[in-house]
Amino acid sequence: MTFDQRVSELGLQLPPEPLLPPGVWIPFEWVRVVGERCVLSGHGALGLDGGPAGPFGRVPSEVSLEAAQESARLTVLAMLGALRGALGSLDRVRDWVTLNGFVNADAGYPQTTAVLNPASDLLLEVFGEHGRHARTAIGVAALPLNLPVIMSAEVIITP
Questions:
Q1: At the N or C end, where does the chain have fewer CB atoms within 10 A?
Q2: Per residue in 103-134, pLDDT tens?
Q3: Alpha-carbon torsion, ordered 85, 91, 97, 98, to 10 deg
Q4: Where are the domains of the chain?
Q5: Topology of 37-157 in CATH?
């Protein structure tokens, strides 16, 4: 079974590239391919229209652990959508190398790894052994758009 087929079998829907407000320009690429390396810029949860998906706020005072975990899963789906758009197919992914997660956390919040665990689980569900990755889960004081989670990654791809 291919990775694209696995996404379909799991009933997952991938959003399009992030929808930017009119007149907004970004000076970077969401997905940067350099040889066999593919680096994904920081992504947040997206709706199926490409717009930011809530909830918004700090974990856990404004966003529950469970809601933040769902945001982490939606963030991975946004990353997979960006990868599919850039590569033409998720089947070009050979291996996930790193997943770097940032959690909009209250000071001293110790469960940032718990927030990101569903994201790692989803990569393993879709990619099996090829989804194994090193990971960082850092709590930060603020994130763009007041999102609870933002993630970046690096994958190895086939030419």
A1: C
A2: 999 999 999 999 999 999 999 999 999 999 99
A3: 40
A4: 37-157
A5: 60s Ribosomal Protein L30; Chain: A; (3.30.1330)
